[in-house]
């Protein structure tokens, strides 16, 4: 399994950038995401924390990375789970402090149990503490909090101590939003695996099959190709279920005449794919369905056409929104002109409830601001975003023509911003109605 391949030099280069971007008296504290337990003693498969992974490549639970440029002998310290032969029999090998030093390049490494005695001293020496609140690592958060309070009280006497608490995202988000060549390669592979799994699953779509069968086919397709699994709970939504944006029950049978919306993505070596396609379960779109499908596709194409350096995610969204609004007016679902409706979000929101794009990377909804200084941020080469317009026609809405009540259509692709425009990483999976129908035939 190719779950994690360490490129230590890559993570070291990223740490060097962070160390030079931190305030000279700053300390960044990055705890690994907590392990999730369900029931009495069941641990879910561990999902490493993206920020910690980005800077260290470390994938074991409980680790805490400490980056502090003022600690000139040890700017990079790792606190890790120690070796534990007894536990390792159950859950596999641990690297312990030896691997933290020799493999992951830490200047100092300590067992995690030593964090409470070592971290307060480091915080007391710092002027700025970069730590994110509310991530679920309550033990580390409580320690940072008490250390900060104590250090701030001592400031008057000691003449030093932290005054400022900063979100690490102030530095890391702007690094992570620009994907380097290595990341683009992994995103390409996540996209390829996702496309292949969609292609493989599509012929299983037929009346009488279950949403769960398609979920199984997609997730198996990801795993078979070396992905760690789905990047988010796979959405397989037949008929009106597709009007629930993050429907994950996947428990209904597929009925003739319905559409099936599948939204899924592989996670490959930590990086995410995210694709949506909408299929006619009986093999061909009915004319009324086809009109809405073509409108969503036109919105998708218009939005992607605007992905290039200098444009904004806002412009990409508005392009999709204009096409979708025109279609809803044509259907008689909305009244007025596109320009009028653009200002009346409350009127179109029931049918167009989500925005068109999000950043994509280590997180499915990846980090990075969509606005800077209150203004929509301009796209730049190396950014990766989804383009995923959808039109949703709720079953209970009387403005919706009867034949279309309970219809949800979304078409989603993953797009890299290039110096000259864009590259659709998922372009090899067709979107045109006739091609989507052909995919059902295998
Ligand atoms: N599947 C979640 C999303 O498309 O954003
Ligand atoms: Mn999606
Ligand atoms: Mn998405």
Keywords:
442 residues, alpha+beta, six-stranded mixed beta sheet, 14 helices, 18% strand, globular, binds glycine
State the gist of this model:
Helix content is 37%, strand content 18%. The chain has 442 residues and is of the alpha+beta class.
How would you write the strand order of the largest sheet? 6-5-4-1-7-8
The shape, in one word, is globular
The value of Rg in angstroms is 24 Å
Indicate the structural class. alpha+beta
Q: Report the total helices.
A: 14
* Secondary structure: number of strands: 21
Main beta sheet: 6 strands, mixed
**Which residues form runs of ≥5 with pLDDT under 50?**
none
* β-strand amount: 15-25%
- Ligands bound to this protein structure: glycine, manganese (II) ion
Average pLDDT over all residues = 96
Share of residues in helices:
25-40%
Q: N-to-C terminal Cα separation, in Å?
A: 28 Å
């Amino acid at each position: 399994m190719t779950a994690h391949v360490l490129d230590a030099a890559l993570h070291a280069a990223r740490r060097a950038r962070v160390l030079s971007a931190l305030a000279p008296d700053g300390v960044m504290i990055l705890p690994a995401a907590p392990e999730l337990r369900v029931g009495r003693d069941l641990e879910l498969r561990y999902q490493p924390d993206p920020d910690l992974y980005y800077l260290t490549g470390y994938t074991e639970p409980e680790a805490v990375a400490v980056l502090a440029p003022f600690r000139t002998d040890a700017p990079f310290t790792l606190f890790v789970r120690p070796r534990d032969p007894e536990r390792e029999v159950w859950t596999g090998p641990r690297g312990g402090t030896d691997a933290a030093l020799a493999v992951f390049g830490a200047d100092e490494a300590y067992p995690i149990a030593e964090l409470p005695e070592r971290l307060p001293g480091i915080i007391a020496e710092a002027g700025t503490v970069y730590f994110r609140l509310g991530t679920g690592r309550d033990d580390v958060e409580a320690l940072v909090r008490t250390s900060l309070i104590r250090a701030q009280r001592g400031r008057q006497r000691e003449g030093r101590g932290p005054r400022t608490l900063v979100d690490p995202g102030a530095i890391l988000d702007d690094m992570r939003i620009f994907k380097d060549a290595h990341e683009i390669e992994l995103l390409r592979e996540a996209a390829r695996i996702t496309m292949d799994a969609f292609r493989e699953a599509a012929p299983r779509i037929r009346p009488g099959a279950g949403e769960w069968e398609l979920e199984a086919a997609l997730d198996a397709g990801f795993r078979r190709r070396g992905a760690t699994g789905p990047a988010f709970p796979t959405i397989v939504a037949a008929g009106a279920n597709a009007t629930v944006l993050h429907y994950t029950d996947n428990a209904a049978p597929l009925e003739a005449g319905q559409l099936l919306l599948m939204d899924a993505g592989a996670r490959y070596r930590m990086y995410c794919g995210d694709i949506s396609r909408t299929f006619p379960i009986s093999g061909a779109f009915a004319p009324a369905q086809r009109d809405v499908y073509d409108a969503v596709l036109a919105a998708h194409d218009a939005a992607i056409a605007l992905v290039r350096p200098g444009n904004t995610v806002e412009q990409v969204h508005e392009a999709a929104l204009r096409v979708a609004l025109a279609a809803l007016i044509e259907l008689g679902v909305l009244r007025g002109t596109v320009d009028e409706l653009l200002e009346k979000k409350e009127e179109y929101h029931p049918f167009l409830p989500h925005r068109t794009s999000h950043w994509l990377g280590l997180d499915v909804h990846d980090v990075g601001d969509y606005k800077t200084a209150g203004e929509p941020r301009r796209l730049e080469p190396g950014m990766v975003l989804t383009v995923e317009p959808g039109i949703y026609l709720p079953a209970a809405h009387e403005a919706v023509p009867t034949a279309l009540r309970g219809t949800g259509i979304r078409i989603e692709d993953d797009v890299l911003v290039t110096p000259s425009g864009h590259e659709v990483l998922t372009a090899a999976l067709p979107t045109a109605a006739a091609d989507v129908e052909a995919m059902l035939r295998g």
